[in-house]
Amino acid sequence: MSVDPSVIAAMQAAVEGDPANAALRAHLAGLRLRAGDHEAALRDARAVLLVVPDDTAALAVARDAARLSGDDAQAEGYGRLLSALQGRDPLELPPAAPPAPLAPEPPMRLRAGPLRDDEDDGEHEDDAYDDEDLVRSLGLAPATAGVTLADVAGMASVRERLELAFLGPLRNPELSALYGKSLRGGLLLYGPPGCGKTFLARAIAGELGAAFFAVGLDDVLDMWLGQSEQKLHAIFEAARRSAPCVVFLDEIDALGQKRSQLRHSAGRNVVNQLLAELDGASSDNDGVFVLAATNHPWDVDTALRRPGRLDRTVLVLPPDEPARAEILRRCLRDPPTEGVDPERIAARTDGCSGADLVHLVEVAVEHALADSIRSGGARPVTQKDLERARKEISASTRPWFATAHNYALYANQDGTYDDLLTYIRANKLL
Predict the structure, then answer these.
(1) Which of 73, 360, 369, 427 has fewest C-beta within 10 Å?
(2) What is the maximal distance between C-alpha atoms in the chain?
(3) Cβ distance 319 to 345 under 8 Å?
């Protein structure tokens, strides 16, 4: 069933303006499902269930989206929970049948002197096998990213910050040792959707040739109590074995949402587990650099942003005019073109994200393709196609800045949003 894209866009803007509104996000998930965007529908439904595990509308969407995505086992699990909830008090969780119980962890033993070699090796090997097996089942094998910072258009200030925080020390281990600079820690990337936060994370890993773990909501969140925490622990254990590496946590506002906003203990337990992994209290995180991305930094638990965890915050803004021109040129390399002027389009797309510009080129290509089909002969993409596409799209970053403006003004006691406030004032986005 088709859904007008403008309706979904309006609902998305409403959700971004009120991210704590679970009912609104559940409705958006339903719209995405009807529009055929099964992955996005499942992602939104899971975000609702993290906060409200007994939301029957979100469970129904998650069940159908999982089934349409080909994950019958997950769809069956959501279906069982939904069937158990129907006809009951919505605040009463059903006694769902749990999966096979996990073997309890051995108790911590305090003793004088080291453990015997055979004791230590045996336990370590068993734990490592369990973690590796779970990571493989999630499809999270470390991989090189395939892109470098040379592929990133613009973002000069962001790249300079990254060079000081991580890239420089890793390239110069002798100087790092001299100054006592550790390679542990993390960086929080925030900004409007579609401005390249995920691409930048991949470029950092590619720049170093380091292993790269891209961790999304569906890799961690699980409907069974305790499973989400176990997955998170397994991911970090695999990262420690692959050091030096970059762990990229996408949508960190969902994984690490403020615990004061969470109604149920399951969500708080995930945040607590993430805090424990970032601390590395029982493990060495040296060589494991954590990058996190969010569109809503004000929803991230403050404990995650203290020194030693995600202790640096970098604003990723929409591309400036030279960067927009470079993005357009790269997008226009593959289709046949004639007489195109990326600089002229770049000058007229202020406020557009990188994703907006990619979409602009796709729309222009569609216009050229449609004309070719009608005429029976292929023709190149022209400046006229680009101008037509430019008039059909609008900058998707505006709603985000409308919301972010209030936080930059009234929730900036520690100066976190100084860069954001400067940009808003300079570009008259008040």
Answers:
(1) 73
(2) 85
(3) no
